Request: fold
Amino acid sequence: MAAQRLLLPLHPARLLAAATGTAAVAAASIVTERLAAGFGVGDAALAEIVGGIITLNVLLFFPPGSLGRHPLRFLPVLAANILPLVATAWLARNHPLVVQALLAVCAGAAALARPFGALAAAGATTVVMNVLIALIVGSGADFPTIAAVAALAGCGFGFAADAVAMPVLGRLATAIERRLLAMSAAAFLEEAARRWNEPGGWNGTWYEADAVRFAATAEDLAFGAGGPTPPMLCLLIGSIGRSAGRLTAWRDARRAALPATIGDAFAALATAIRRGAAGEAVVQQLRAAGLALPRTGDAEDHAAANVLGLALLLSELAQNVLHPTPLAAAPPHRGFPLGRTEIRVALQAVVSVAIAILATHVLPARRPYWIPLTVIILTSASFGETLRKSYERLLGTAGGLIAGELLWLALAGRPALATTALLVAVAAIFFGRTGAYRWLLFWITLALALLLNGAGAGSLLVSGRLVDTLIGVVIVVAVTRFILPVRAAMVTAARVRALLETVATGLRELRDGPIEGWVLAKIDAMLGAIRVASDAELLEAGLRRDARARVQSRLGAAEHIAGAFNSFAALPANFHPQPETAAALAAGAEMAAAAATGAAPAPADFAAMEQSLLGRADGSGLIRLDLRLLSMVALIADMIPKLAATIGVRSGG
Reply:
């Protein structure tokens, strides 16, 4: 147990991905430098830097596995690197005003590309970054040749890492991490078994601390490239907690003990996970416990339904820990993905870059194009998100500069140690790519400080980056606040609308059988997007209590809906709802669809459907499973008006 607690925070999948990415960057830098020196094509040191940066961009911008599985994408990615570098260098020498206008247009195009998917956004961002690289370091006449050599080496090693090294090492790391996760799950369930029948043992404090820690570990596991983990694993844990919590409340309210089988099932499932078993016997054990409850009233039948639901959730948890399977792909998006807010953000990017370019002519900056770089990166979906990102960028840049300068002073005269520190910083960039933005900026800036000092640029140029970053922050915050402002509430409304549409689709699917995995994945993703937009909304609102209450109500509703849908993942493959449950699903789908289009959702009489279902209970357990499903649909229906209020819809009735 101690070894498992020690190893889990290290995340073997992340460590190996960081090591692979760092090796690819180092190899591309060395090969580019040797080729430039061997063929005498110009500044070999500059070629080394550009080759490493291109490799870093390829591996950071494009989703893991998106390049290696499709070798034909090598040519478009290579073109997105070579053409902007060469064309920008030539234009900067012959038509400087044209290239500055081109940079503003490319920034707007990159903002417009985001709704078209990860690959489109990565390609557009690659073009913009290469235009900036050429503007910053491409003043020499031999730069086009250097750019071609660096792009070939950078893209080649980037593809090699994504196609060969990362998948192979990722599978190894994921196998190690999955075993550690299984041990963590077993320990968690053994603690649950111990506490189940202990007076006062099962309490929210213990469960929240352990379950949240376990869920975070499961979520981090999805980073591994070797084996995708269904995202419902994290929320399954929350669903188990709610289900077990309802049983505990029922037991305490009536001072009657549920069968000890519940605690025994926790222990049995822990043993099954440690042995690598599927846990089917545990399902039968818990199902028997549910059927054994006396049917003397509605409360007992609800408790039995929850026991049955808990059995299915625990079984699904075991399956996801031991035998995770990829989710089915979502159907292609229909319709034009650009809306009013996306076009506004693109126009803001163009205006911000134009003002930043003007600032480079007015202000005495050593590397003036760091100001447009800051503006391009910080332009976000709303003013609140831009504000948060600006704060984190300033914090990460300042911290990285201070740490880099102190480290360089400590390592002065020891180039081997300085190179090692630079490689560690690059590895930290890959390791923390999915973490907090300020830490990513910290490591990027630290690496840049070491690189520039090593190239003889000096502390003045390094500290100038902080000043340029501050100027860029002021420009982008002012533009997003006063020119075609996009409020976080507008972004939240769009994301809530997308969530409601997905909820309607999922409830319709449940009428015909178990739900598709992509629906669960999309709901989970939309919940994360709503959290980000809500944080930005709170930042815009400041300390207003009404805004905080509204945001908390919305987030609570979205989390309840996500939890309910993740409990649907545990339904048996041969499940088909009873007529009352099918009617409840249809009513819930109509409510979600109406709210998404701006209409008032009409209420449905779920209590009458539930009474009808209880009247037909036959002791087979299937009605009880339908009863649980119907209660989850009623919960979703209760949450829809709270979400609808976000997009200006009043609840009906």
Q: What stands out?
A: The first helix runs from residue 2 to 7.
